Amino acid sequence: MKPWQHLLPLFVIALAVCLRLSAWHDFRASALFWVGDGGHDRTLYHQAAISVAGGEILPETAFRFLPLYPWLLGGLYAVCGPHLSLAGWLGMGLDLATIWLLMVLARRSGATRAMAAMAGLIYAAYPLATLYSLVTMPNSLNALMIILLVLSFRAASPFRPLAGLGVGLLAGLASLGFAGAIPMTLAGLVVVLLQEKRSALAGVAISLLALSVVLLPVALHNARVEGQWTGLTTHSGFNLYLGNHEKATGYPVRVLDFRM
């Protein structure tokens, strides 16, 4: 192996930093930096984080969005004030961690240093990853949590109870930011059972229990204030008013009597 190959991960991180700082410089100078009034996603996350900074961990209503990102950003707002710049620096930091861990995951999956660096480079240069890292949106956090979840499954071998506890807790946190982590976790646990069979039963059971314990407080809060079971959020997943027209609010329309 050539000596310069050891520097490939650092090169990828340096490139990611340059791309994001360049985009950040232009974004800060544009009118798009400021969140507007109304029901846009960026505005709603910003407002939710401000509420968290004011001590409102559980809102008076059901959660409109999954709470992990507002909780994290709200904690920063509580310490430093509700500045939009914080969201950008947070997102860029999360993105850099994701790129590094993506290269780690590639190496642990058998990739060469060059191929692992290529995986990190693809994410580092992906325009939407850069864009979403700058705004009050949870995409960068969700990507990091999914990478951590996959790494936790790889590290939890054999799948003993303590390993199952760690995977379950991490899966619960990831699911509070990206609900797709729930079926991903269930699929991962099925694979564990197929590979390790009875020896993994206790670990899988503890993992499912830990996942439920993390999710239940949010789900029970939503059920209490809604008067019916709503799951983790009232976000229906549908938006009937996307597009460039007068009704394009960007707000996730709640379909009547529809709950996730």
How many strands in all? 0
The dominant shape is flat
How would you spell out the order of helices and strands?
HHHHHHHHHH
Q: Structural class per helix/strand content?
A: mainly alpha
Name the descriptors.
single chain, flat, mainly alpha
Description:
Helices cover 63% and strands 0% of the residues. It has 260 residues and is mainly alpha-helical. The chain has one domain. Helix 1 (8-28) packs antiparallel against helix 4 (84-108), helix 4 (84-108) packs parallel to helix 7 and helix 8 (161-175) packs parallel to helix 10 (201-226). The model is unreliable at 237-246 and 248-260 (pLDDT under 50).
Blueprint (SSEs and pairs):
Layout (H helix, E strand, L loop, with lengths): L7 H21 L12 H13 L14 H13 L3 H25 L4 H12 L2 H7 L5 H17 L5 H15 L5 H16 L4 H26 L34
Helix pairs in contact: 1-4, 1-5, 2-3, 4-5, 4-6, 4-7, 7-8, 8-10
What is this entry, summarized?
This protein is an all-alpha fold and 260 residues long.
